[in-house]
Design goal:
By secondary structure, the chain is α/β, with parallel strands linked by helices. The chain is about 45% helix and about 15% strand. Strands 1-11-10-9-12-13 form a 6-stranded parallel β-sheet, sandwiched between helices. It has a 5-stranded parallel β-sheet with strand order 6-5-4-7-8, with helices on both faces. The longest helix has 20 residues, at about 80-100.
Length: about 425
């Protein structure tokens, strides 16, 4: 990565420095995905099998995972991996239980009671990627809040391996969350199947999960279609922005950059550092650590599309981060906690030298399904609330209606909506003759 000095860039150069690598291809990807979704809607399971053959190189006998495959998956895993999944499940559950919203009941005026109550979304579809690596952690991140929310029908899709099976660790994590309907489907076709349903895959009200650019595009297409499904958030290729000052460890920073760079070739990593000396030290550490990584080729592709930027101070770096709105933000700076109040746009924040982004990916307890591509300006990561809808309720006594009715009548008249006003005045006249409503 070639160092850039932020203070020497003009506005156009700053925009270019923060540009995501995939943004130039979005229209092309969206067109491809729209055609694929229409194929799934037209031909259902037949198209799903054909696309699985084409993209995954697998001929499926059955799209759905059989009951015995769950048992075989659990039996095939090393005991220490099962224990790690169990441990992560418990911590994720503890954090998400603490975030369950309470119902609300308020008397806004005498005799006027307003409530807000939650209901679990009935049918949800969870997407667990496996393009370059299996992700049992994502099965937990989606399955745990769905389980806590109490969604009745929960299905999961994950791409098959070359042997036609879903990765055993993903199936075991799904089982931990009480999910027993899993389908051997990946990519945009999995999103289409869950959004519209086929003879085999149930139609879902809302679709969740991260994925590559094609998966993200598919989610946006089905969300824009009134006959499609709602989505959690745009959660595409992974990204991290690290802010580092002279208190940071170059080795730690390099490790954090590489932990995201190894996700896939369309990921992005950014480093904002307070000195050229720190950037040089991080680059040296990257070279050393890259030589030790099995996925070094993927990481090198990502680093080629990433940036190292010298900034004047932490305050400027946070302003740049807010402009970029990263999925993950690491503050490897002195007194990291003191800077949190200035962070406006980020999916998840990691404070200090001993909070690597990797723990958030797996087992600290927070969710790793987060907004990407700048969506953190308006979206939040997945939580229990993502799996709920909220309904408001109001109950009025006669006295309550008498108290607030004139306010509503006057506003309705101002808007020229006489039927609105009459719906109130008729009640007041019936209950309180002579009220001159």
């Amino acid at each position: 990565m070639r160092p850039i000095e932020w203070s020497r860039l003009d506005e156009a150069e700053r925009t270019e420095a923060l540009r995501r690598p995939l943004q130039q291809r979005q229209s092309e990807i969206a067109a491809d995905v729209a055609r694929l979704i229409e194929q799934v809607r037209a031909d259902g399971d037949a198209t799903l099998r054909a696309l699985t053959r084409r993209f995954d190189g697998v001929e499926l006998d059955a799209i759905e995972v059989a009951a015995q495959e769950f048992d075989a998956a659990a039996a095939s895993l090393p005991a220490d991996l099962r224990a790690a999944i169990d441990e992560a499940y418990e911590r994720i559950r503890v954090f998400h239980l603490a975030g369950v919203p309470n119902d609300l009941r308020v008397e806004t005026a005498p005799g006027v009671v307003c409530e807000r109550i939650s209901r679990a979304i009935p049918a949800v579809g969870l997407y667990v990627p496996a393009g370059t690596a299996p992700l049992p952690s994502t099965a937990l991140m989606l399955g745990v809040p769905a389980q806590i929310a109490g969604c009745v029908d929960v299905v999961m899709c994950s791409p098959p391996q070359k042997d036609g099976r879903v990765e055993p660790s993903v199936l075991y994590a799904a089982s931990c969350c009480g999910i027993r309907r899993v389908f051997k489907l990946g990519g945009a076709q999995a999103i289409a199947a869950m959004a519209y349903g086929t003879a085999t895959v149930p139609r879902c009200d809302k679709v969740f999960g991260p994925g590559n650019a094609w998966v993200t595009a598919a989610k946006m297409v089905v969300a824009a279609d009134p006959g499609g499904a709602a989505i959690d958030l745009p959660a595409g290729p992974s990204e991290v922005l690290v802010i580092a000052d002279d208190s940071a460890s170059a080795e730690f920073v390099a490790a954090d950059l590489l932990s995201q760079a190894e996700h896939g070739p369309d990921s992005q990593v950014l480093l904002l550092a307070t000195s050229f000396e720190l950037l040089t030290a991080v680059q040296s550490a990257l070279d050393v650590q890259l030589a030790q990584l099995p996925r070094a080729d993927i990481a090198r592709l990502v680093l080629a599309n990433s940036r190292m930027i010298v900034i004047d101070g932490v305050a400027q770096a946070i302003a740049i981060s807010n402009r970029y709105a990263p999925e993950h933000l690491i503050l490897s700076v002195r007194d990291a906690r003191s800077w949190v109040a200035q962070v406006r746009s980020a999916g998840s924040v990691f404070l200090g030298n001993y909070a690597p982004e990797s723990v958030g990916d797996y087992c600290s307890g927070t969710n790793h399904v987060l907004p990407t591509s700048g969506a953190a300006r308006a979206y939040s990561g997945v939580s229990v609330q993502s799996f709920l809808t909220f309904i408001t309720v109001q109950e009025l006594t006669v006295a309550g209606l008498a108290g607030i009715g004139p306010c509503a009548i006057r506003l309705a008249q101002a808007e020229g909506l006489q039927a609105h006003a009459r719906a109130i005045s008729l009640r007041l006249d019936a209950a309180l003759p002579g009220s001159q409503s």
